[in-house]
Amino acid sequence: MYYRLLHSDTGELASELHGARTTLTLSGSAVFGESASDGVLISGGGTQRALVEFVEGIVTLAVHDATAEEVLLGVRTRRGRASSYRATFGGLRR
User: Fold this and answer.
1) Would strands 85-90 and 49-55 be described as parallel, antiparallel, or unpaired?
2) Residue 23, exposed/middle/buried by CB under 10 A (0-12, 13-18, 19+)?
3) Coil, helix or strand for 50?
4) Is the pTM higher than 0.90?
5) For residues 58 and 94, what is the distance between their CA atoms, to the nearest angstrom?
6) Which end of the chain is more exposed for a tag (fewer CB within 10 A), N or C?
7) What is the pLDDT of residue 80?
């Protein structure tokens, strides 16, 4: 799945943004993959909480869940930055 950081005022991808870190979370028995195909996975591969660094406004991680269940996705940002950017996600497949 991918997470994108968008400018809150325009909705455009914050592609100029490098190095922004955030914590992504999953519920249930879902876990993040061991590496990122876009952006940087700093820690938390194979767990439900991953610290990631966006590159050109995007982070892409695999999500694994052996159980058919609803999974809640969370994004935690540092205060201040959240007012300028918003995160969207997509790319989930059954």
Assistant:
1) unpaired
2) middle
3) strand
4) no
5) 22
6) C
7) 45
> Which stretch of DSSP H or E encloses residue 62?
strand 58-64
Under the banding of pLDDT at 50, 70 and 90, the label for residue 94 is: low
Structure tokens at 78: 């540092």
Q: What angle do CA 13, 15, 18 make, to 5 degrees?
A: 130
What is the rounded distance in angstroms from the CA atom of residue 28 to the CA atom of residue 24?
Answer: 14
Q: Count, in order, helices (H) and strands (E) of the chain.
A: 0, 8
Q: State the Cα–Cα distance between residues 47 and 86, nearest whole angstrom.
A: 24
Taking 90 as the threshold, does the pLDDT of residue 76 lie above it? no
Among 55, 47, 1, 5, residue whose Cα is nearest residue 28: 47
Q: What is the C-alpha to C-alpha distance for residues 42 and 40, in angstroms, rounded to an integer?
A: 6
**What's the residue count for the chain?**
94
Q: What is the mean pLDDT of the chain?
A: 83
Instruction: Return the closest-CA partner of residue 25 out of 1, 57, 55.
Output: 1
